[in-house]
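Many groups now describe folds with learned vocabularies. In that spirit, our science desk offers one protein's residues alongside their backbone shape tokens.
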Amino acid sequence: MKIVVLDGETLNPGDLTWQAVSALGEFSCFARTPYAEIIPRAQDAEVVLTNKTPLDAKTLAQLPKLKYIGVLATGTNVVDLAAAKELGIVVTNVPAYGPDAVAQMVFAHILHHTQAVAAHHQAVAAGQWTHCSDFCFTLMPLQSLKGKTLGLIGYGDIGQQVAKLALAFGMKVLVNTRTEPSDLPQGVSWTSRDTVFKASDIISLHCPLTPETTELINAQTLELMKPQALLINIARGGLIDEAALAAALAQGKVFAGVDVLSTEPPSADNPLLTAPNISISPHNAWATKEARQNLLNIAIANLKSFLQGNIRNCVNNK
């Protein structure tokens, strides 16, 4: 059996091992694969593992031996699922491999905003503390999270982990989902989406990108938010109308922390790259070593289950 990893560099830049995968067959791993190289590299493969390398209908039709696609991520938009099903190709994904890592990044952005550690470090490095008349100084008012309201749009594994951290900080948590959860912990309340926007000091997005949620954050919803509220997006870049957010940031209406943009890598003219009042991390909230190892473990278990005839985490069986 021939197994090909099309873009292994992101998941495993060298600190993990592919040994458990390579033991299952003839194994090839490429750091990344340009679109024109997909067919030559995967021509005889029965198993292909991909993270972000696209496998569209045209490509799949030219891979006659392919029986299994393992997506090395939760999102599966890189694969034409309908075409794969029609061709009898099983597609699996890796759900819930690192909610703690992503929730950690949510609070990294929140604390970056409320504590201004980076700005103060830069000031100290520039000599401002050395020349200060007092034993301490602050560039801006710092903020306590205790008593603040955190609004969550979406309440899956990641949203629930974010809520736990928020409660530990003494925050009140509001949740909006398509259906009201039946059992919420003390301190967490379900409410309407508009109420989340209006009542929250911090809003964190944890919903999937669908036609209904595309540009959920837009000029209208930004107007609903509290003055100088903080918006966090660690979900999908397409949830935000980036031009509208950039305008609100420039006007000082809101602040933001994001780990995702509408196009990645972003184009140089993305308005958020030069906007004030925002922190941007390069889609690496998921990428702690521990989360990547867990992702790899689940991907291996998926493949082994397929080979044993017991398919798990299949995403194209409907």
The longest helix spans residues 289-307. DSSP finds eleven helices and twelve strands in the chain.
